[in-house]
């Protein structure tokens, strides 16, 4: 059975408040060409020659080897000539490009469409954009995505279709649903009506007590979840609502989640934007922290606990930058970090948006930028609608940048995820999140290591991906420039292999059909 069609998507979405399920709106590089979908018969080796192989663990290059691939796995790094096992191999000349492991987006919402509000008439367009999101990821070298809440039924079905080869897309790991409490964060969109939840599955599981928390962990485990996601925010991110305190999971509920997840062998990830949430994540020893505190500096005590517990942090810097619009005619803080990030967004991120989405979605993104710059979210007629708070985002992004810089300086483990699904952010934009992290202290080599090996460890799949090594999936990305010299080169993709299949190739890349045999 193939993935959902537009018609099936309309049936899937029927009867629901689409915003409730899909979420609140929530130098330019060339994209690769449309997918290729070329692979060799089972058992026949493929040899990638004339490439600079990047060792992401050591931050070095290897120019003296070729990469041997057989049956979707890396067979080894071999001498370009004279390897007996490659005598019958097909050869692709990488023409001096830089070969890196497939990138991993460790925090994405891959079946969110990056628009809001959502109209019923948008549902076909949304499905098209979701399919585009899957393709967008792999065509920009992102071969694995850790999706951090979704439309569960759709994602499970699409994930299976991708695994079968019926859809082009990345390998997807997901908790499927976010475990929270009634009235708690996320406080936007509600959860739709019962009919909608029957069609879509519920992205928000709101537990009334510890027993229900255990039930929800068992539920997502049975659905095939790869992790469990909870949240600790006690404040809203919506315009006009930040003073409202939200209920959060009780200690007993968190303990129940942690215990049930441990029994199931699932890691627990915690969303937090505030220092109080960081404290609770440290108190219970979660396995990863999503975002960074944006209301107060990380304290020495908190930093010691992060390091002692070896908890990886995925800062998702792009999301704050994307939301931090200055309102026309209103005095704005004179902060160099804020000015720098807005300039980067307007000159680098926004011009790249049309490369990642359908033209109708790009136009809606442009409308959203105008809406927030004009300050229309504050108009009386818009009261009662759900819009993020760009004034709050502007304050928070400065603190988030400073806290991420400290995490880097003090040696915390940093993962790379861009929170795609929010306005102006798409799953293939991992290279831009890498740029953001380099602006607060990572070197290009560290950013590349974080987006590959560190993310693979965070996802508990480092035995299968994250480096170019024998026995691992042949997830490989060919770049035109050296990513160790300039992190922006991570977005200059020439070709992408996923488990040995050439899934995308830029204009001018060698035609695999013309690949020659080795000389032996």
What does the overall shape look like? globular
- By CATH, the superfamily comes out as Metal-dependent hydrolases
Query: What's the alpha carbon Rg, rounded to whole Å?
Result: 22 Å
Which class in CATH terms? Alpha Beta
Number of helices: 15
Count of the separate structural domains: 1
- CATH overall fold name: TIM Barrel
Helix content: 25-40%
Q: What fraction strand?
A: 15-25%
Across the major sheet, the strand order is: 1-20-19-18-8-3-4
* Integer average pLDDT: 89
Instruction: Report the strand count.
Output: 21
N- to C-terminal separation?
Answer: 42 Å
Largest sheet: 7 strands, mixed
- Unreliable spans are 1-33
CATH architecture: Alpha-Beta Barrel
Indicate the structural class.
alpha/beta
